[in-house]
Amino acid sequence: MKRAGLFTKTVVAASAFLAMASAAALAGPVSRSPNPAAKEKISTAAPCPHGIVSLLPAATEILFALGSGEAVQGLTYASADLPGAAGKQIVGGFFHPSVDRIKALDPDAIFYAPIHEEVEATFAGTSVRMVRIDIGSIEEGLGAIERIGGIVQRQKEAEKIIETIRANLLLVRKKTERIAETERLRVLRIMGTDPLMVPGDGSFQNQMIRAAGGIPPVLGKTGPAVAMSKEEWVRFDPQVLYGCNGGVRHADPLFSMPGWRDVEAVQKGILYDFPCDLTCRAGIRTADFVSWLSARLYEDIYAQSDNLVLAEKVVKNRLLPLAIEYVDTAQVAESRIWDFVNKTLLVDFSEPMAVLSTLEGTRENIETVGNHYASPPLWKIAYGGGVEPVRNRVLSVIERPAASTALLFTGADMDHMAAAAASFKDLSVTALVTAGACANAMRMGKDTGGYYEPGTINILLLPGVRLTARAMNRAVITATEAKTAALLDLDVRSTYSGSEHRATGTGTDNIIVAQGRGLRIDNTGGHSKMGDLIARAVYNGVREALSRQNGLHAGRSVFRRLKERDIDLFELLSESSCECIVDKGRVLQDLEEVLLVPRYAAFLLSSFSLSDEVEKGLIPDLSAFRDQCRQIAQELSQTPGLQMDFLVPPESLPLVIEEALNALLNGVRKGR
């Protein structure tokens, strides 16, 4: 099991942005220089780059959103999980991209930030087009979309994206404009805790708070991140605190201290957590985060029907080709409900039939089955009162009768749904799967359940045969086992105990099994052919959906795998008490460089698998593994007989991973 002591004194939260801020602190102050290309005129005569290395996550996200993802050859590991990014070359982290790896790609354009001085100097005067992007405000984020759209000759796509962002920001403003100034909430974004770090005045993060209808502090300090004293903290008296990717939890020791614990947000426990790719960059998803934050701040106002800005109706339909004899039509209906985007998968049958739903039980005479997605701003609003009210509201908007419609509900975007089919002779089945496993994946039998939520990994199982009641019930077990097999084979980690356990599900998964039509089948167990087909369709569908929704695929980077186990390399170095590490920032850079080498990445990845077996008590002896650790350290350091120091804080990680990282750190430190 994971031993106590991990991150007892946290310098920064375990998130991409905070890791960047922390690395900057190690490297020394970084000046924010003006962007020399901020007013650059886009020449439509300039050739469109076809080999791009993008070092700035916000720019990478823009390139993919514009439809130019194919042109991206290299990116940092912070962007490696974007849909379509699988297989792209990782050139390092945001702070320490590898110049050698960038050179090896022979790009014709590099998108970079002011912090990338070494990259800028290396390629200055070459034929490589250097595109410097510096985003410090919401408007600069929109300007970056326009500028990048011009460079890759996707101006119309850029204009459409900007128009949508502005429209959604305006919607939030209209939703909150009736809130009196005295009723607006004081909101603070936590970025680090030793000392307490918050966004500076004028930062895009504070602009987002204002756009959401909140009031950020005014400290008279500018910059992406500034220190906030206890006196300033008490004077501001925040009513809401938020961080990203679990970062708020690192402030717990601080919040227990006199003064710090006395503000309203801490007293009432109003602390929110959001994904880092929403909170820590301005650009493509600015309006998404502003909407989500605003809906959390003013949930009651957003839930009021008399405060709607837009009519509740279906605004768009996307047909899905399903070659199933009894399916009349299949589509994804996009609607506005509570003013925000909803997407509903609807499969209409040509005749009524029975279905088995793990959410609703056995239903007869069903003409439509579906899976409904509500966007994040609606999660608390829609499901706070249970499923029944939201089901009735959705059915009214999509114009389907409750008596003949069976719905599931999910937080996974319907655009990332996977359709997987399997067949053998006259047997067939189709699985329509939505899946997400980054917020509530859990290990059954180990993690503790304590709340209810409608669904995450949802499966609509549509057999090409007629299942008996017995076969429909047995299909649930078969599909569940296949889903769990997919999670285990991908090494999806538990959100709650990821350092020790792989996830078996999300704890909120649901399935609908349709009765089907045609050949009568009474057995869907694992040894039957129909069970085999169900398992294959579900297994493949879950894997594909997880890749689309979360970037969870077998080839994901070692850096992503570290994050999934809640391991922050910078934080480990910060916690190291060994005085032998003089320049921790440089050691971190060297370690990241080493982990770009497949041999050393594979060594660390293999320690993950070994660790799981050791923690379960299945491997009693580690002598062979320790020999390999010494070999790796000596190889990296080019020092035969190297005596290793303890660089990883003791008992901070599972033993095997601790020793593997210690070997790598000793190797890169002694090898310099």
Overview of the structural elements:
This protein is of the alpha/beta class. The chain is 37% helix and 18% strand. The strands form five sheets. Strands 12, 13, 14, 15, 16, 17, 18, 19 and 21 form a nine-stranded mixed beta sheet that branches. It has a five-stranded parallel beta sheet with strand order 3-2-1-4-5, with helices on both faces. Strand 7 and strand 8 form a beta hairpin. It is globular, with a radius of gyration of 26 Å. The two termini are 34 Å apart.
Short description:
The chain is 37% helix and 18% strand. Strands 12, 13, 14, 15, 16, 17, 18, 19 and 21 form a 9-stranded mixed β-sheet that branches. A 5-stranded parallel β-sheet has the order 3-2-1-4-5, with helices on both faces. Strands 6-10-11 form a 3-stranded parallel β-sheet.
- Radius of gyration (CA) equals 26 Å
Q: Which sheet architecture does the biggest sheet show?
A: 9 strands, mixed
- The structure class reads alpha/beta
Distance between the termini: 34 Å
- Uncertain segments are 1-41
Number-wise, the strands total 22
Envelope shape: globular
In round numbers, the mean pLDDT is 89
